[in-house]
Structure formats: structure tokens, C-alpha cells
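Aim 2, interim progress: modelling of the nickel (II) ion-bound target.
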Amino acid sequence: MRVCRRATFNAAHRLYRADWSEEKNDAVFGKCNNPNYHGHNYTLEVWVEGEIDRETGYLIDLKILKELIANEIQERFDHRNLNLDCKEFANLNPTAENIAIVIWGLIREKLDKRYALSVKLWETQNNIIEYDGK
Ligand code: NI
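Predicted structure of the complex, ligand included:
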């Protein structure tokens, strides 16, 4: 059985590699390489898999998941410039793929080991990334 808690955050980013020429960055990342950054309204789905607790009837208390996401993800990334404000992306291109991997790692660290974890990140309504540690 799996349960999901959804959350949103807004953040700015720019996709580029400092070790590439301007031409190559433009060719690969296009508008996402805008030097003045651009923003997204990210939607995050955190999926937790495990066994139902017969006593409570919960797989996990979703309040715990809500607070974990608020403390570890929204507090850290909401209303931030991911490239400039967030050490996680100081040397990591903040693509949706990399953001999902970082988020997964942050939640994994704080989530009870008895649960399996998967995160789904919606960068736009149409671009969605899923990461479960593999
Ligand atoms: Ni973007």
C-alpha cells in the first residue's frame, strides 16, 4: 500500500554548466539558460510505501509527512533561487531530475527506514519526474 502527501513550492533556477561555452549552453538548455533566471511553481508528491498499522489504521500519520516536507523541502527551497541560494545546487544543475534526487535524499534521511520512498516532482503541468532511489 502507498500513501501520498502533496506540497507545492515556488523557486527560480537557471540551467547551465559553467564549464561549457555560452553557445553550447544555449544549444542544450535554450530558454532555461536565461542568465536572469526563471521560475516554476513546483508540485511535489511524496509517496510512502509500507504496512498498515493495525492499531491506528494508518500506514503513516500524514501529519508527520506534512511536517517533514515543510521542514526539509519547503523551508529550504520555497521562494528561493535554487542556483544562488541553495547549497545543494551550488555545483549541481537544478534540473527537475536533480531536484527530485536532492528532495528524495533529504526526505529519505528523516523518514523511518521501514518505509519505501518515491518522490514525484511536477515542474510544469506536463513535465513530471519520478525518483525512488534507483
Ligand atoms: Ni525551468
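The two ends are 20 Å apart (CA to CA). The helical segments are 22-29, 62-77, 82-85, 96-110.
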